[in-house]
Specification:
- By secondary structure, the chain is of the alpha/beta class.
- It has one domain.
- Helix content is 52%, strand content 10%.
- It is built from 16 helices and 6 strands.
- Strands 4-3-5-2-1-6 form a 6-stranded mixed sheet, sandwiched between helices.
- The longest helix is centred in the last third of the chain and has 24 residues.
């Protein structure tokens, strides 16, 4: 689903905010439950080191199911070793009462237009038909830009499949850090993350919505594939199917949502490595941010830090 597949691996705040506006078309209610997990997910975990500090990078899936837990012993060990945690957004901001309001402002039109005025007639008609099938109406979404509508629809399907933002890896570690008394911080503000989503061109937003409306059941299949690839720790599949597809199909969105944010995070990540003494950090961020040459893993490796994948169950961790 173009932009929306990577969003489940990238923009942490979007999942929780968009749930308030999610619409669940009939295709979602027909989705079969995913089989119960029998083993812990293969960790997407890297350890970056300098002379005295370590930075653990953990690839998150922002919506998960209870049976995706417990996590691997590798991840538990990284958490135990870390004195502090980093997230895309500071946990205090994630739970702030005005966060949903910020999301609504970012997804609204600044020039007074409406969704019906922005969408091509054929797209609007397909959306109206889909929403009507589940008792909804396009009137509910008139104030929202196409990216927010698409996000709400896809996340509505994910929710119907049993995925919950409150079970996502970010939320899990936020609660765990609070219980352990470990300090937490964010790599960016809510406003910065919202600006990345809101800055995507309408042409790319509408193309993504058109793709969804052409076959809503495809979102079910792709959600299963995305989740399975994440559980299997399959870097090649995640990189090819999600990062590379997004870069090719939605290049401006890819730059805003992934590349520019990765670049902006680098100074904070390096500061954690350069601080005097032994003070290790666990950074939990969307998996998309760790993939490929644009990802922070390779960016840190290129700066000369020692980088190793931590995966005791992997045949050849890199």
């Amino acid at each position: 689903m173009r932009l929306l597949k990577p969003l489940l691996l990238s923009a942490a705040i979007a999942a929780g905010c968009a749930m308030a506006h999610a619409a669940t078309p009939q295709a979602a209610s027909q989705a079969a439950a995913v089989a119960a997990a029998k083993t812990a997910p293969v960790p997407l975990l890297w350890k970056v080191s300098d002379a005295d500090n370590s930075l653990y990078l953990l690839g998150s899936f922002h919506m998960l199911k209870p049976d995706d837990y417990p996590l691997s012993a590798d991840i538990d060990a990284a958490f135990d070793d870390a004195e502090s945690l980093l997230f895309e957004i500071d946990p205090a901001a994630m739970t702030s009462p005005d966060t949903i309001a910020k999301f609504q402002r970012a997804s609204a039109y600044e020039d007074g237009r409406t969704l019906s005025q922005v969408l091509p007639a054929a797209t609007r008609d397909k959306l109206e038909k889909l929403l009507a099938a589940s008792g909804g109406s396009i009137a509910t979404f008139e104030a929202a830009e196409p990216w927010a509508v698409n996000l709400g629809l896809v996340l509505g399907i994910a929710q119907a499949m049993g995925f919950r933002s409150e079970d996502g890896l970010d939320q899990y570690f936020m609660a765990r850090a609070q219980k352990a008394g470990k300090p937490v911080a964010g790599l960016e503000s809510v406003e910065v993350q919202m600006a990345a989503l809101d800055g995507t061109p309408h042409a790319e937003q509408i193309a993504g919505l058109d793709e969804f409306l052409a076959d809503p059941t495809k979102a079910v299949t792709e959600m299963r594939t995305l989740h399975a690839s994440w559980r299997q720790g399959d870097l090649k599949a995640l990189n090819r199917k999600f990062r590379m597809e997004m870069a090719e199909e939605s290049p401006v969105s890819y730059r805003l949502v992934n590349v520019e944010r990765n670049n902006a995070w680098m100074s904070t990540l390096e500061q954690r490595l350069k601080v005097a003494g032994s003070n290790d950090t666990l950074a939990v961020v969307g998996t998309l941010h760790l993939l490929g040459d644009d990802g922070v893993v390779e960016k840190l490796r290129a700066k000369g830090y020692q980088v190793e994948r931590v995966c005791s169950v992997c045949a050849s961790a890199k």
